[in-house]
């Protein structure tokens, strides 16, 4: 548990970074007055660290524009786009997917549609199948990910099925939600997926799905900032890793 570990470190008189045993300890003041890049070994106290909650350390990073975004949680997860437009039956049961529609049992009586992508005119085993869902809630989608390999939230548009706004995940697989960069993505119609369905053995890898749908995928990264002090000055150390 990194949080409890850091709290223990704060209670100690010093924190010793034991890497680079061949180097002598260098004062932080000297480091701050030096030009990068250099390699030092320090002896310092951990004064503060951010963020305070471990889950806040996880961000979404775009390797193309180098932006960092917060991971949507709870009510921040936007799936409203799937309910704005009623499912259009014109786009049901196309050449590469079968569609099933029903009405939810809640007070809103939502129209929910699942489109099952076919391969070689047949449905694959559920664990190998990609499905698309209109009008579903996040809870309903999570249930589907336990049975099917991939779940893509969609909505009906004038010219066919489309992805939701990129505030929502463009793909759910297992227990992972995949997001796309709003700035770097140029979303394509869902029918672009038919090229993957036509492959001999479609793998439905998230990277391939993102590519054919014109999505620049965001990657989950771990980010923290530590402020170290040794009496000669403060030094901010940043941790950034996938």
From TrEMBL:
Pfam families tied to this protein: POT1_C_insert
Q: What's any GO biological process attached to this entry?
A: regulation of telomere maintenance via telomerase
One annotated GO molecular function: G-rich strand telomeric DNA binding
Q: Which GO terms describe its cellular component?
A: nuclear telomere cap complex
Q: Which residues form the Protection of telomeres protein 1 C-terminal insertion domain?
A: 76-217
State the name under which the record lists this protein.
POTE1 protein
Q: Which organism is it from?
A: Ramphastos sulfuratus
The lineage is: Eukaryota, Metazoa, Chordata, Craniata, Vertebrata
